[in-house]
Amino acid sequence: MARGNTITWTGEIFYLIYLLFDFGGNASQINYSLQEESKTGVTVGNIAKDLGFDPALLESRNLRIVAGTKQELFRVNRKDGALFVKQRLDREELCAKTKPCLVQMKAVIENPLEMHQVSVEVIDINDNAPSFLDENYKLEILESAMTGARFQLETAHDPDIGSNDLQSYKLSQNLYFRLETEDMGDEGKVPVLILQKPLDREKIARHNLILTATDGGKPQKSATANITIIVSDINDNTPVCDKQKYAVTVKENAPEATFLLRVNASDSDEGLNGEVEYSLRNKFRNGASEVFHLDSSTGELKIRGGLDFEERQVYELKIVAADKGAVSLSTQCNVLVNVEDVNDNRPEIEVTSVSSSIPEDAPPGTVVALIGVTDHDSGMNGMIVCSLPPDIPFDLKPSPDGNFYSLVTKEHIDKESKASYDITITAKDLGRPPLTSTRSIHVDVTDVNDNSPAFAQSPYTFYVVENNKPGVAVFSLSAADIDEGENARVSYSIDRMHSDQTIASFLSINEANGTVYSLKSFDFESLKTFKFFVVAKDSGAPSLSSNVTVNVFILDQNDNVPVIFYPVSANGSAEGVEEIPRNVNAGHLVTKVRAYDADIGYNGWLLFSLQEVSEHSLFGLDRYTGQIRTLRSFTETDEAQHKLIILVKDNGNVSLSATATVIVKVVEPKEAFAASDVKNAVKDEEENNVTFYLILTLGSVSVLFVISIIVLIVMQCSKSTDYSSKYLQDTNYDGTLCHSIQYRSGDKRYMLVGPRMSIGSTIAPGSNRNTLVIPDRRRRESGR
User: Fold this and answer.
1) Separation between Cα atoms, residue 168 and residue 388, nearest integer Å
2) What pLDDT, in 10s, does the model give residues 567-587?
3) CA 20 to 30 Å from 148, out of 187, 381, 388, 420?
4) The listed CATH number (2.60.40.60, 3.40.50.1110, 3.10.690.10, 2.60.120.10) that belongs to domain 454-555
């Protein structure tokens, strides 16, 4: 019964610690109660219903009850979740006098793992009657005893509690004695016999009384003891203890012969009638005579040996102090010995269930073992903290009562890193000094094909310069699988189901190393970008695969010569005639040379220069816009006709160029006015032809360019990619989000800009910004 007290009290302490420190887990507590001595099979409650489990899943989730003690008092029906009594419940055996009497258990259910505290209160019934240690009790009283003398009788014992415990004593009817009951608190009720009429040995030498002890149960139970009172003559003073109760506290590991206290009783008689000797009563329910030694002469109480806090915490000793008169008189001195706990028990580790191996793809939280820990000590000496080495991927999850731990994985296990673990569990109590115990569990990690091949990049972005040679490798992909053996052998293939069939038809890939070959030459002006998908598959069973998007951008080369749009003569040559009045001022716009280059970036960035001019002081050419303006006013000495040859050149590594000729005729103001109508008519006719071809050309190029820019924008917005030396950036242009791709060709760096740009303008001169924005064109230059 003492062992039951310790287990229950320790469980309550651990549960309080769990509430204070929230040691983890989604746990709840359900409480039941039933009377002791309930029949085997009686249902206590329904765990599945009270915890909200699905009854249909109880068997598959392995619902079970794990007891906090070695006694399996209850079981759970896995079909409906009902908790029922497995064996006889004796509250007195489980808890002794402890109130309430709680049986702590843990409801465990798996998939996922859940642990819930189940507490069953065993309610006392009146199944025990009071009992006396001796049914026949003799008491000697001197005939000279004074009226009102008090004589303490042997107490009765009732293992029940509460109202079922001992409640009262009753004495059989007589003329000489009456009975009082003293409530001694934790010691219970003590019957005291009081003399109410002087004794006369010559009349009555012996009195036979019956003492009845009754509990408060329904129905009541009782016990009787026969009390024989022998009336003694002469020695009419009994020894008197100097204290009503002696109390002492001693540690359970106190050595033999440790002095506890001295009982002192005095007798006012003289001679042998006043000489007192001490003795422990011969019969003790708790075996105290084997634990303590009492000096009969001095009353010194010492330890004989065998103190154990886990077996018994309190000893109630009754020491008889008797004189040595012819008819000895005696009294009882009550001694209370409290045993103090010391940390003399190591924690005990018990592995209730264990998995010897786990797959490497086991998710975090997978249960490896269930571990029970107990310590028979109390208080801090009985509190246990379990720990694991810090460098292993496992963790301990405590139960609410702290008596059980689940050994679980705290992260993914990788067999490629470590194939097995020897897990050492250390249990340490909180005593001073603390005591520890260890237990090792061996766990093997089984391999599974749990890793798909992983590409080095995702997505891949490659840049291929146009006019490449067919059949030559253009780029290479690689994927790695961290598994071993066949699970790590990777093969490559083009996903032709999801890739554009037209594009996939001119690509091939080396199955073993991922090298991609182009079966045709690329033309930037026809195809600026495309994408396809590559699959990497391992050789495991079943095999795992992954795919990656490959974005390919065709880089422009300077393979297009600038085209002159204006001036254009009737025969298609780049030559035109402009007439201006002689009286124009400096800065007058003579004409504007317009040109277009199908290339992009530096390859399509055009600059204008005067290759030949008859009078350098008269005309100037804006190198970026192609505008020809007068530098000064005409004089009478200036020629009437001037020839200007303009060179239009792109900025490619190997520059391509074209020339245009402009004839400027200087006329008098009236002639210029008269000729203007004729000139405009001719010019309109010429420009109509030019406009048709210009619209046709610009329309085709613009459609292709806009499509390519839209594809680039969509791809960029969906996945931001670092292009290393080839930059992809967003630029705010005219309040509109514009996308630009920078790339290097030779010693120059190019940028493709979109979408809101037009054709025909150039960068403003004198700009020193890192990135020069071209307002009217699709080309920009990076000065970095």
Assistant:
1) 56
2) 887 666 778 888 899 889 988
3) 187
4) 2.60.40.60
